[in-house]
Design a protein that fits this description.
Blueprint: E1 2-6, E2 9-14, E3 17-21, E4 27-28, E5 33-34, H1 42-48, E6 56-58, H2 69-78, E7 82-86, H3 92-100, E8 105-109, E9 114-117, E10 120-126, E11 145-149
Length: about 150
């Protein structure tokens, strides 16, 4: 089962495994994006959420509507937080997660690498093109990712 909570935040549950992808429920992008609950209502979200707490959290990239430090720290108080990310060349995402959240474990996967977690197969796919015209030849893109779950 795959449920979209809001924007990039989705929950996948199957075979007794629950993966939360890009979880955020407060505000993002300096308050210009509002989600379902305010930061002060994390407990309310957890109480009203019919899905299990995550066994694994996937973070696609550093933007605040994908990487919510406050919500990740809240989750860490309620579960052993295991985070999966792409092994980005510059390492910024991993460094920030370890400094700001310090989860139980950070799993860094290379793009297109197969990884099995409790019988569920995962693969991270990189963003292969920019969203702006004529930028393809101007930069080597290593910003965003997607998660394939089998």
């Amino acid at each position: 089962m795959l449920i979209n909570v809001n924007n990039s935040f989705s929950i996948f549950c199957a075979n007794d495994v629950c993966i939360w992808m890009d979880p955020w429920v407060g505000t993002a992008n300096y308050g210009s994006w509002a989600a379902l609950y305010a930061e002060s209502e994390f407990e309310k979200f957890i109480a009203s959420n019919p899905y299990p707490l995550p066994d694994l959290v996937y973070i696609s990239h550093l933007h605040t509507d994908h990487y919510d430090v406050d919500f990740l720290n809240f989750l860490k108080e309620h579960t052993d937080l295991v985070v999966v990310i792409k092994d980005f060349k510059d390492g910024r995402l991993r460094k920030r997660i370890l400094e700001e959240v310090n989860p139980s474990e950070v799993i860094c996967l290379h793009e297109y690498e197969n990884y099995e977690f409790r019988g569920v197969k995962l693969m991270i796919v990189p963003q292969v093109s920019a969203s702006s015209a004529d930028t393809e030849n101007q930069l080597e893109y290593d910003l965003d990712t997607s998660l394939i779950i089998e």
